[in-house]
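Customer escalation, tier 2.

The customer says the design service returned an amino acid string that "doesn't look like it belongs to this structure." They asked us to rerun it and document both sides in this ticket. The original structure tokens are below, unchanged.
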């Protein structure tokens, strides 16, 4: 594979990364906590909580877990892209090193 086969430019600036982190932090942290706390409850505990809180609370609970799932999928996609970029750059670096030898 030549370096011309795969080429890419930066897709985000550092400022965009920082803004994304700020935006995601609050919603992601709450959704993560809701998801993790859910895992500490038995079926009976969850059922009792839902029965007491009502349907709106159940819907909100599910929305938080879905948000966490969505965030994780997006993060997985970004991590996969970052991994592929480093592999491609590593190959290009190997070629540069060989060319200098």
């Amino acid at each position: 594979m030549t370096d011309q086969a795969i080429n890419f430019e930066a897709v985000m600036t550092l400022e965009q990364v920082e803004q994304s982190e700020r935006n995601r932090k609050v919603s992601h942290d709450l959704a993560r906590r809701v998801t993790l706390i859910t895992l500490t409850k038995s079926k009976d505990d969850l059922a009792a909580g839902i029965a007491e809180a009502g349907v709106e609370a159940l819907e909100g609970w599910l929305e938080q877990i879905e948000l966490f799932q969505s965030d994780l999928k997006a993060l997985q996609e970004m991590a996969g892209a970052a991994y592929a970029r480093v592999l491609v750059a590593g190959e290009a670096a190997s070629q540069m090193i060989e060319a200098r030898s």
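Tier 2 assessment: The sequence is consistent with the input. The helical segments are 14-38, 43-53, 55-100. The chain has one domain: 14-100. Sent an explanation to the customer and offered a walkthrough call.
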